[in-house]
Amino acid sequence: MSAGPAPDHAAALRWAASFREFRDALYASLSDGTRSLADALGSDDELTAETKLLGVLESLPGARKTDTRRTLETLGVPGSVRLGALSDEQRSLLLATFPLANTDPAPDKEPSS
């Protein structure tokens, strides 16, 4: 009987858990506007590169799932592609097609008195 997962399997489980945590934080930062699509697409971070395009686009403020999927289909870019696998042309096309997603994050607002 095995006492637990093999070392390689355990390492894979740890990596997957850390990736899910990172991905959720990325989606939240895109959703609340603290990170832009341009920033996510331009990142050379290994975990960002492993994140799928559709999840990123659907996390943007005001994104509608059906519209986003239809737009990707029209562009010929699969939503399942990982950010690190996008070509420079695809990145430019996405930034031009989703212009509201390129704005710089809004500065923190001061509470009204």
Question: How is the topology of this model organized?
Answer:
Blueprint: H1 7-31, H2 37-42, H3 46-49, H4 53-58, H5 65-75, H6 88-97
CATH topology: Helicase, Ruva Protein, domain 3
- Count of the separate structural domains: 1
Arithmetic mean of pLDDT = 86
Segments where pLDDT lies below 50 for 5+ residues? 105-113
Helix content: 40-55%
N-to-C CA distance: 66 Å
Shape: elongated
The share of residues in extended strands comes to: under 5%
**Helix/strand/pairing category:** mainly alpha
Return the string of H and E elements: HHHHHH
- Give a short account of the largest sheet: none
Radius of gyration equals 17 Å
CATH class: Mainly Alpha
Q: What's the β-strand tally?
A: 0
Q: What is the name of the CATH architecture? A: Orthogonal Bundle
Descriptors for this entry?
Helicase, Ruva Protein, domain 3; mainly alpha; 113 residues; 6 helices; disordered C terminus
Describe the structure.
With 113 residues, the protein is mainly α. The protein has one domain: Orthogonal Bundle (Helicase, Ruva Protein, domain 3), CATH 1.10.8. It has helices at 7-31, 37-42, 46-49, 53-58, 65-75, 88-97.
Short summary of the structure?
By secondary structure, the chain is mainly α. The chain has helices at 7-31, 37-42, 46-49, 53-58, 65-75, 88-97.
